[in-house]
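Worked example 2:
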Amino acid sequence: MLSRMLTVTFDAHEPARLAQFWAGMLGREVVENAGGALLPGDETQVSLQFVPSPARKVGPNRIHLHLTSARDDDQQHTVDTALKLGGGHLDVGQRPEEGHIVLADPEGNEFCVIEAGNGFLAGCGLLGELACDGNREVGLFWSEALGWPLVWDQDQETAIQSPHGGTKVAWGGPPVAPKKGRNRQRFDLAPAGGDQQAEVERLVSLGATRLEVAEDGAVMLADPDGNEFCVRGS
């Protein structure tokens, strides 16, 4: 099966500002497009897209980013960069002995800066992980949907990674908090080979549910945990 590149789309009140924040964090360039602002990735690092939306944040996101640290002083440098760019510290009940630092971007989206020496994210690059709420079933679904192999499958926790390496996508297993409206972060897929209809049919056969067709022709689906995601046309 072809491996598929993955984009994470963020709803944002100020997409240009949020894109600039994450560009500064990840060392990427912003590409403006019809939908908003894109930070292109590659075959090992997922892309980030920021689109305008009036939706308010209600509770923690189901997806948050994990940034890695190559050396001991990298973690503090990343935190300092985030604070200079408009981010802030966030208390989600983390314990003092935990090595990661929890922050929020300018629109309150949670993310973590992981300490150096984390073996699970070794070699994954700066954007090391998309940490998601989700059951084992949804991890298995996305492994098939993207053509990315499972690299972790224990105690109802799953993780997948592109065959080329790079960013991991992980699901923490039950219990999963109830959804409160549409997710403000969601996966965005471009069909391999450009056949949108065939890709939608394939994803439905894997367990996705059809939701709607957007004005731009994108098809919105839901994964087995009810998380919305989008399949774009060519």
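Residues 6-185 form a domain with the 2,3-Dihydroxybiphenyl 1,2-Dioxygenase; domain 1 fold (CATH 3.10.180.10). The first helix runs from residue 15 to 26.
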